[in-house]
Amino acid sequence: MTSTSDGPDMRVGAERSPLGEDRIKHLEFIQAVINRMATNSFFVKGWVLTLAAGLLTVSASQLSWKIATVGLVPLLCFWSLDGYFLQQERLFRRLYDDVRHVDSSVEMMSMNVGPYLARTSFLDAALSRTLILFHGALLVADLAVLAATL
Question: Transmembrane: present as a keyword of the record (predicted)?
């Protein structure tokens, strides 16, 4: 901390930050996108859980293989949408990681994640452990109801 005539400087790391204000603002923009992707993923999980529970309840109570089959379509669509959000989050995390370095070659205020696409595939994100556990469990439940109704 530095002392001035007005008292000690209470800003944390005010004089020690090697990053300029523009770079810090850039990191904040990227972090906002990462947070938005995580929030979108959370909402998708809520929607698919609600929809799947409803369709599974109706198909099990009516013993309808048609409703159980229809339930597979939104489940797979939401799984792919969740995978897309996770891929985007990973892309922006890579961008964040590059921007945070003092000697970064990333253009200031750039949100271009194109250079990271080759290292961050949609399939890896969609088949990540967490998405398989969540959406896979719903898929297994739907298939079990489907098998029971046939």
Answer: yes
Q: Model-level pTM?
A: 0.84
The maximal CA–CA distance of the chain, rounded, in angstroms, is 82
Cα torsion 131, 78, 85, 127 to 10°: value is: 30
Distances (CA, A) of 114 to 1, 57, 99, 134, 137: 41, 43, 14, 29, 33
* The residue type at 50: T
Question: Using CB atoms within 10 A of its CB, is residue 105 exposed (0-12), middle (13-18) or buried (19+)?
Answer: exposed
Q: Where are the domains of the chain?
A: 20-149
DSSP structure class, residue 8:
E
7-21, 38-52, 108-122: range with lowest mean pLDDT: 7-21
